[in-house]
């Protein structure tokens, strides 16, 4: 199954997917890495792994629909079957999201549906919660919403700062994203409303 990864920056989750795809038993490969920002570290990671890259800057387009149409065209031309948002900092239009059905994944650094949006780590600490975590979900038009595929929880410790919590969650993200891609790419996921059912292995 061919993946298209959309990034805007550091690309550590992209790296986790690159590493997962190096395993011959992993059911997916990255066909294209697309960034809306030039010169970001994620692009370097892709080049190093021999993966085709492309920069499509949102600044070159007159509005979201035109930008998303360019993304869509590029992804489809590369034969992409599953789109992975990996630190992609642009909202996608409902038209784009709907046209890909259940084939767009996003990773978010909170236990959704808590703490959608930005600044999630500090908000989790300030809430007094004892656990935080990450979520990989199928993308729906509303931000950070959609059927949840994989979650991982980590403790919030006394004395945690935004940075220490973010680092603990990031380690969990790097396991959760490949796991979610593996499930979706191997056709084991059935979506029922907001719930994902994972088929039991048959062998
Ligand atoms: C991650 O924390 C991810 O959950 C969020 O943006 C960050 C991207 O980090 N959506 P990276 O670019 O994958 O290192």
Automatic annotation (TrEMBL):
The GO cellular component terms are: cytosol
Into which family does the record put it? Belongs to the GART family.
| Annotated catalytic residues | 108
Under catalytic activity, the entry for this protein gives: N(1)-(5-phospho-beta-D-ribosyl)glycinamide + (6R)-10-formyltetrahydrofolate = N(2)-formyl-N(1)-(5-phospho-beta-D-ribosyl)glycinamide + (6S)-5,6,7,8-tetrahydrofolate + H(+)
Chain sites annotated for binding (6R)-10-formyltetrahydrofolate: 64, 89-92, 106
Residues that, per the record, bind N(1)-(5-phospho-beta-D-ribosyl)glycinamide: 11-13
InterPro entries, per the entry = Formyl_transf_N, Formyl_transf_N_sf, GART
Designated name of the protein: Phosphoribosylglycinamide formyltransferase
Which molecular-function annotation in GO is an example for this chain? phosphoribosylglycinamide formyltransferase activity
Task: Report the source organism.
Answer: Elstera cyanobacteriorum
Job of this protein: Catalyzes the transfer of a formyl group from 10-formyltetrahydrofolate to 5-phospho-ribosyl-glycinamide (GAR), producing 5-phospho-ribosyl-N-formylglycinamide (FGAR) and tetrahydrofolate.
- Site (Raises pKa of active site His): residue numbering on this chain: 144
Q: Where is the Formyl transferase N-terminal domain?
A: 4-181
| Segments crossing the lipid bilayer | none
Pfam families this protein is in? Answer: Formyl_trans_N
- Extract the PANTHER family matched here: PHOSPHORIBOSYLGLYCINAMIDE FORMYLTRANSFERASE
What NCBIfam families does the annotation carry?
A: PurN (TIGR00639)
Per the UniProt entry, the Enzyme Commission number(s) are: 2.1.2.2
- Listed GO biological process terms: 'de novo' IMP biosynthetic process
Q: In which pathway does it act?
A: Purine metabolism; IMP biosynthesis via de novo pathway; N(2)-formyl-N(1)-(5-phospho-D-ribosyl)glycinamide from N(1)-(5-phospho-D-ribosyl)glycinamide (10-formyl THF route): step 1/1
Keywords linked to the UniProt accession: Purine biosynthesis, Transferase
